Amino acid sequence: MAQLVLPHEANVHGSVLGGTVMHWIDLAAAVTANRHCRRPVVTAAIDEMSFLAPINVGQLALISARITLVDKSSMEIRVEVGSEDLLTGEQRHTSTAYVTFVAIDPVTSRPAPVPPLILEADDEKAGHARAIERRRQRLARRAESTTAGR
Ligand SMILES: CC(C)(COP(=O)(O)OP(=O)(O)OC[C@H]1O[C@@H](n2cnc3c(N)ncnc32)[C@H](O)[C@@H]1OP(=O)(O)O)[C@@H](O)C(=O)NCCC(=O)NCCS
């Protein structure tokens, strides 16, 4: 996805609001999850993320997403965000986010199975173990927050 940053999306410093960037991340991840499973999907979790540099009004925000892990009904999507200065062509990386989507059965509204992920490139295979560890930590945090809510 590419988004030209317009004045109505800016904070008082003239750069895009963090919440707007998170909205774009959610959308890019949703489309990626939908394309993988061809089912309705919902956001289950967004991992901690940082904003490493501002994206200013008049610059292009570049958002790219790919699936990095699939389990029974859940999918982890890595989203990379960057900026491009349209006058100089300079590009900067600004954020990386990991988003978990869950596929939903349209009739029962319950989590539904998704197709497996076929790992082809060497970097995809190498990243798989790290993705499994991220999922383990995410589910531990989920269990903690579930207990805290009781
Ligand atoms: C996400 C949701 C469907 C999970 O439903 P649930 O009844 O808790 O189902 P389960 O516990 O069986 O979890 C289903 C899958 O989601 C995963 N999951 C659920 N919450 C998760 C979280 N916080 N982080 C990572 N994975 C999560 C589970 O690990 C499981 O994965 P698997 O099937 O691949 O093994 C449910 O919590 C929900 O509807 N949440 C609200 C979603 C929403 O409104 N999002 C914002 C707008 S789209």
Task: Report the β-strand fraction as a percent range.
Answer: 25-35%
What pattern of helices and strands is seen along the backbone? EHEEEEH
Total count of helical runs of at least 4 residues: 2
- Poorly predicted parts: none
Record field, number of beta strands: 5
Domain HotDog ACOT-type: 1-107
Keywords: Hydrolase
GO cellular component, one term: cytosol
Family: Belongs to the acyl coenzyme A hydrolase family.
Provide the descriptors you would attach to this structure in a database record:
single chain; 150 residues; alpha+beta; Thiol Ester Dehydrase, Chain A; 5-stranded antiparallel sheet; 2 helices; 5 strands; globular; binds coenzyme A
Describe the protein in words:
There is one protein chain. The chain has 150 residues and is an alpha+beta fold. It contains two helices and five strands; from the N terminus they run βαββββα. It starts with a strand and ends with a helix. The chain has helices spanning 18-37, 122-148, and strands at residues 2-4, 41-46, 60-70, 74-84, 91-103. It has a five-stranded antiparallel beta sheet. The mean pLDDT is 96. The protein is globular, with a radius of gyration of 17 Å. The protein has a single domain, classed as Hotdog Thioesterase (Thiol Ester Dehydrase, Chain A), CATH 3.10.129. The structure holds coenzyme A. Residues 42-45, 71-74, 100, 102, 111, 138-139, 142 line the site of coenzyme A. One of its GO terms (cellular component) is cytosol. GO terms for molecular function: long-chain fatty acyl-CoA hydrolase activity. InterPro entries: Cytosol_ACT, HOTDOG_ACOT, HotDog_dom_sf, Thioestr_dom.
